[in-house]
Amino acid sequence: MRNVSLYIMLTGILITAISGNWIILNYDSVTIYPKTSYVGFGIGLVLVAGTFVMSRFFSYRENAHIKDKRDRLNRWLMADYPVNKWLIGLIILPLVIAPFYSWMLFFTMLEWYLFSGVVLAGIIYMLKGDRVEDDTDWEYHGKTKMMLDLIDYRKHPFNISLILYILVIVSFVLSKVWDIPLYMETGGNPRYVTSLPTISFLMSSLMVVSTFIYIISHGDFFGFRKAELSYERVMFVHFTEIIVCGATLFILIFTLINALYVYF
Predict the structure, then answer these.
(1) What is the residue range of 112's domain?
(2) Among the four 16, 19, 76, 261, which has the fewest Cβ within 10 Å?
(3) Helix, strand, coil fractions of the chain, as percent rounded to 5
(4) Is the full-model pTM beyond 0.90?
């Protein structure tokens, strides 16, 4: 039952990311968001929170007769097998055709390709290597341990990316409800290296990967056995969060301040 709840959690975080990204991409296209967009976003969050509670009530039961697919993945990665060029061509083909129809379609597809690529690469990074890893270098006690437990995604799925992503989506939705436009810096000479929609879209993929850390740490995943990941892998995610989430928070704060200043 725990594995089932974790599959539902993955579904929930994907629903959250997809519906949230739709809200981000269509900010300039709608006067007010349809109810289904933020209801879907809320349903995804409820699934993540609900299945987290469910997973606490069910213990993990290991099936010794099921072979771990992690060994096959490791052999595939180490063997450096040639990539199927036809498969890569079929994947990229829609992206090549898109500009002939619309450049907006091309950039939208590019963002979804980037989202999918980061999520897939992150999942592979969490699945590869040994199933049980040594964590002795990260043994802390007292207040340090309490602080690290708060951001240890092996113990809960409520990661920094998810919390900040919720703030971004709520800001977008309320902006339309209260008719306070947000200047997204998507054209002309933007003040930042990236725009709030682009960096938030990228952060959503990091949110999915961070949630997957909890999933693979508490149950099996399509033939990959429950793992005991080292905190080093979690720290790699934290390092990425410092860059992505830090930039997102900075741009979000200044975007909101600018919007309120202009409005009032």
Answers:
(1) 66-263
(2) 261
(3) 70, 0, 30
(4) no
